[in-house]
Amino acid sequence: MISVAALTAAFTAMGVRPGTVLHVQASLRALGPIEGGAGGVVDALSEALGPDGTLVAFTATPENSSTSRIYRAAVAGLSPAEAEAYRERMPRFDPATTPASPTVGALSEEIRTRPGALRSGHPQTSWAAVGPLAAEITAHHPLTSHLGPDSPLGRLYDLDARVLQLGVGMARFTAFHLADLRQPGVQVREYRCVAPDGWTTFQAPDLDDLHFADLGARVLAAAAGVTTARIGAADCRLVPVREAVDLADRFLRTTPAAS
User: Fold this and answer.
1) From residue 130, how far is each of 51, 55, 136, 153 by CA, in Å?
2) β-pair partners for 193
3) How would DSSP label each residue in 30-72?
4) In contact, 55 and 112? CB cutoff 8 Å
5) What is the pTM of this model?
6) N or C: which end of the chain has fewer CB within 10 A?
7) pLDDT digit string, tens, across residues 62-113
8) Torsion angle of alpha carbons 61, 167, 163, 221, nearest 10°?
């Protein structure tokens, strides 16, 4: 079992510095047994960041959307009446109480529920943060910029944040959406979800992440600021958001992602 003290030392050795804005993506299963589980990982990260650091997590909730892959899988094969009954049971999003989706990992929920954590109000693609810059990161999140430059993800770019990936590959590097949105001809589609006041519909860019693994491999081959380490049983990396997004933008303009 990895102790909190050993984790703190490992994060520091990777380059996590006091005062950093840090978005963490993690597979706790990949890390292996950790003292305190998800809470122990957050404790170690908080210690490495110090009181001036800000810890950030993606706390998305695709389960409350009728336009998400999760919804389509859930209603596949149901009759129209059964699908309607399923929609009726879908919970409203409440930024204060709605758990982060299991698809984004247990660490995101741990960060969301930390004392002092703040969460953005987007009913599908919210972000949580704890630390001095939490309010700046989460305060503004319009429906139409779910993962765009006006979202908390855009604030991570502006603040020159780092992404700590613990047993997670570049296929899940959420910030690549910022590079996608810089490309010409971005399509817009309709999204539907259960917001705090009930069902809402909005138009926003049509985003996907199916090309992120290949794009990530190209970015890692060219990036100068990435550090890597083996922590527990997991391959881990620390990635500068701004460098990764700018490289991805350049590569997409040279070889656009397949549609």
Assistant:
1) 10, 5, 11, 15
2) 65, 200
3) HH--BTTHHHHHHHHHHHHH-TT-EEEEE---GGGBTTSHHHH
4) no
5) 0.92
6) C
7) 999 999 989 999 999 999 999 999 999 998 999 999 999 998 989 999 999 9
8) -120
